[in-house]
Amino acid sequence: MKITELLSKQTIILDLHADSKQGVLDELADQLDDAGKLADKQAFKDGIMEREEQSTTGIGEGIAIPHAKSAAVKTPAIAFGRSKPGVDFVSLDGQPAHLFFMIAASEGANNDHLEALSRLSTFLMDENFRQKVLDATSEEEVLQAVNDKENEVDGPTEEESAGSDQRILAVTACPTGIAHTYMAAEKLSETANDMGISIKVETNGSGGVKNRLTDKDIEEADTIIVAADTKVEMSRFHGKPVIETGVGKAIHEAEDLLNRAVNENAPIYEHEASASEKSSEKEGRSGFYKHLMNGVSNMLPFVVGGGILIALSFLWGIKSADPNSSQYNELAAMLNTIGGGKAFFLMVPVLAGFIASSIADRPGFAPGMVGGLIAVTVSGAEGATGGSGFLGGLIAGFLAGYLTVLIKKIFSGLPDALEGLKPVLFYPLFSIAITGLIMMVINPPLTQIYTGISEFLESMGGTNQIIVGIILGAMMAFDMGGPVNKAAYTFGLAMLDAGNYAFIAAIMAGGMVPPLGMAISTTLFKNRYSKEEREAGKTAYPLGICFVTEGVIPFAAADPARVIPSTMVGAAVAGGLTMLFDIGLRAPHGGIFVIGLVDGGFGKALLYLASIIIGAAITAIMAGMLKKKVTA
């Protein structure tokens, strides 16, 4: 697509009346609106101002490129305005701006539109082109200057220039990925070429990553320049000299940056997650592990924050959130609702959403969230709550992710004219619908396990209590808040209501052991866990003592084959010991805060603590022995 298809006589103002930055923005937006390019002028202006608040679009050399990507844009377009006296646009070089190109990109703009807009940004780095536009006496001459420049370069080329033996790499990115990203790339390439420096520039724009740096490029690089005002993939640069700066610096101070790069005046970049990432590769963990960890790392704040808020609510009493109890406290009830009713409720949908987005990028997020929500809300079994829980969320995440990848492949053959509709219509419509339908079908059978297990436990009420304690403890650790865990807990509540306090004691001990055991394991076996896992271990201590079993989920999700058996064995031992010691507990929740409610006084309370500690120690040692060493 040619730039002149976006820039027309109707969107050109040869002599701007405005003498202020706000006035220029208003005048150009009005011109776009008068040309019928905007659906909502005020919303578009808001988008322009939001971008200006992030950093000025006055890039220096007398140029300003205000821009926004917004649903308020009806048709992608460019408005051009010129002010020969100049306007103070708070430019990077502190000089007045004379040439203003306002870029309006629609939310669903296809790659052709985005590349044309980005190409204009690179043209403006050419002093001769700028002078032609500045000297133009009519709208036609402005358009002719653009046409001539397009014919000269014949479209965009890879941002790579050859030169000296030194190998410099660069990455450019800005929040909207329309203008500054490509201008910085052009300026770095052009300056490097003038200086005789070999450089390759990767651009992270709205149309995706272009000219991506390969592993070989990075390995052979002497220095890497990262000029970005938004997040870029940094882990790949671990151990390399990296200059980190804003994208505006690359446009305005390209020569200084390249001189620093040539002189290797750059710190060695240390990526704090690199050790775990490298160990993952050495242990042969595939993309499955990466997708899983993406879900777990984003879910972790909900687990930690929600769990601690629930624990804090117990400071006012175990029933402080119950309006019918004498212990009721309004603040405690709010904390319990925020932590348990809201944060914990979002835990599984967030896990599924981020697993799916890791697999299928942004289009996978929505179907993953919906699938995870169905996993915890659609039971299909009478008396069952919480759906299929954590395990259902894992299924939903991977299902949504790979299904979205398939849908993207199916729609890859659509005409280019429909490119913009893919991410906003086709992908979400079909991926959410199909993921939702499949989860609606498979989740009820998964949840029905709940009722079957409950009936099984009730039938064992008259058998050897030590065996029942072992089973209940193992069930609490099996799915960490899922249907099996909830079945055991519900059984314990039923027995508590009937006046049998031994079962809930075994259940609470079994629920405390998994997070406590893994916390201890990360302390004793530091070389078996990544830095991220060791940090999670610190938060698992308070979650464990507060009977928040979900605190072990980050470890179980990352390495289920080793963690779940370890936690089940430790929890089973703890449950069996509480039954062996004939310990009763009159509280349904609260962990360490309700230890005073153990029947039999101080001696029984010590035995209860001993049961939990022994179980946690077994889990810690078993997990530490089973897991492989993490090497940097």
How is this structure best described in words?
- Strands 1, 2, 3, 4, 5 and 6 form a six-stranded mixed β-sheet that branches.
- Helix content is 57%, strand content 11%.
- The protein has helices at 21-34, 41-54, 111-123, 127-135, 139-153, 180-195, 215-220, 247-252, 254-262, 274-282, 287-313, 330-360, 365-377, 389-410, 421-459, 465-478, 483-497, 502-524, 531-545, 553-558, 560-580, 601-626; strands spanning 7-13, 58-60, 63-64, 67-70, 77-87, 97-106, 160-161, 167-173, 198-205, 208-210, 223-228, 242-245.
Quick structural overview:
The protein has 632 residues and is α/β, with parallel strands linked by helices. The chain has helices spanning 21-34, 41-54, 111-123, 127-135, 139-153, 180-195, 215-220, 247-252, 254-262, 274-282, 287-313, 330-360, 365-377, 389-410, 421-459, 465-478, 483-497, 502-524, 531-545, 553-558, 560-580, 601-626, and strands at residues 7-13, 58-60, 63-64, 67-70, 77-87, 97-106, 160-161, 167-173, 198-205, 208-210, 223-228, 242-245.
